Amino acid sequence: SLKKYIPKRVLLKISGEALLGKGMYGVDPEIANAIAQDIANVVNSGIEVCLVIGGGNIFRGMTAASKGMDRVQGDYAGMLATVINAIVMNNVLKQYDVESHVMTAIAMPQVAETYIRDKAMHLMDKGHVVIFAAGTGNPYFTTDTAAALRAIEMECDLMLKGTQVDGVYDSDPKKNPDAKRYDVLTYTEALIKGLNVMDATALSLARDNRLPTVVFDVHEKGNFSRVLNNDGVFTKVV
Ligand code: UDP
């Protein structure tokens, strides 16, 4: 029989918007709980998990800059937004008895541990969840790039991008009823066609370091573990 390949260590990236739910701002507790439950199930199955959470539900530097704000200051506001989401998710995970930690790319010692690669590695080796917050710590980057970077640093087998859609399409499925979903896609193809997967920095970083990414719908209950078992609907980018 065909033996299924199950990864040993993965990074799950959740966009800020995915946490928004029906709310106008912040984090929807129902969604946070559902995602935490899924993460707990995967962790309990013996897969090592780390997380990067976006901040788009609270603040985006580029959006603010388009309305006249200084881009760099806006990006700092965006990075701080990711810390808010990380603290919330860390707390919800603890309610599911997951050992989890927040590490920030910008030092804020009263709030969370500062990111140190070896320390994070050690925690992951022990099976703990590490939530990487404040993106890369640099303006002009995104949390998708932070996710690719941390996944590579943590030697993850796979990055999973949890979104509101069930994969990558050749055009916007909300606007075009004939839009086709890719099962498999290459990073180079995504870059050339300008497909809505991740920004170019994240795509090229993942490509150059041979980190595959799975794009899936994080709101579908149980999907995180389903996708890791190669079931369900998703797009794999290689
Ligand atoms: N950001 C940044 N550097 C990083 C990561 C994030 O400056 O390394 C800022 C940027 O302004 C971004 C915001 O933080 O818009 C929130 O992150 P992102 O837009 O990636 O969140 P998501 O879309 O995943 O919710």
Automatic annotation (TrEMBL):
Residues reported to bind UMP: 55, 75, 136-143
Record: residues binding ATP: 13-16, 56, 60, 163-164, 169, 172
GO molecular function list: UMP kinase activity
Main enzyme class: transferase
Pathway the protein acts in: Pyrimidine metabolism; CTP biosynthesis via de novo pathway; UDP from UMP (UMPK route): step 1/1
Catalytic activity: UMP + ATP = UDP + ADP
NCBIfam families: pyrH_bact
Record-given protein name: Uridylate kinase
